[in-house]
Amino acid sequence: MTLQELQKQALQLPIDKRWQLVQTLLESLKQEGYSVQKQGNLSRLRGIAKNEAVSSDEDIATDYVTYLTEKY
Question: pLDDT averaged over consecutive 10-residue blocks of the chain (72 residues)?
């Protein structure tokens, strides 16, 4: 069955059956789309919080003081 045939048959259904079909299709799209979208978003964020060098407490304090000085 082609897509056009399927569309033609769907349009011949009573309104309540068409709504049921729409809801079923949307649920299937949500389930499939969510997993693909979630995986895609996570893969783009991989390594974003990676710290290349371990900072000492003194370096962190110095950076914070510098930040505050420049801010105010």
Answer: 93 94 91 65 71 74 87 81
Structure confidence at residue 52 (pLDDT): 66
How many domains does the structure of the chain reveal?
1
Per-residue model confidence (pLDDT) at position 38:
60
For residue 13, the enclosing domain spans 1-46
DSSP notation for 18-62: HHHHHHHHHHHHHHHHHHHHHHHHHHHHTTTT--SSPPPHHHHHH
Measured CA distances, 64 to 6, 50, 67 (Å)? 64, 19, 5
- Is residue 6, in this structure, part of any structural domain at all? yes
